[in-house]
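task queued by scheduler; priority normal; single chain, no ligands, no partner chains; default sampling; output format set to structure tokens
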Amino acid sequence: MAFFISRKAFLNSSETEIILDAVRNGEKNTSGEIRLYIESRCRYMDPGIRAQEIFVQLQMHQTIDRNGVLIYIAYHDRDFALIGDKGIFEKTPTEFWRKESLQLSQHFSQQQYVQGICKCVDAVAQLLKTHFPTHGETKNELPDEIIFGK
């Protein structure tokens, strides 16, 4: 049995701000970049393929240290993908991505969307801070926004 979630029901404006605050706070002490792309349906069977396409469209592969992370969500399909660029992927065990995917899935199954996304953002931020700490600079290479697709 499928269920329908409208964009408005998925995240309202205050929930969007909570998530944006988590992204901004998470990026404070790292040169890494975290972005969210949310759409109703995934154009492909595999959300990882769609996430890769969006990653390139958003030019996330053009950060200096190749340390961008995209959290992709297709809420009608109840699917998502986490994708990290070469710099962070090479320094991260596969288990990290599995664990975060499992936790995000558990939160989503309980309709705890904001909590799940924020916890995922926090975990990714900690990982980025470990491998890509700032050294006094505060350069933000990509916009801090949630992109809502169709």
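post-processing summary
- The two ends are 23 Å apart (CA to CA).
- The longest strand covers residues 33-39.
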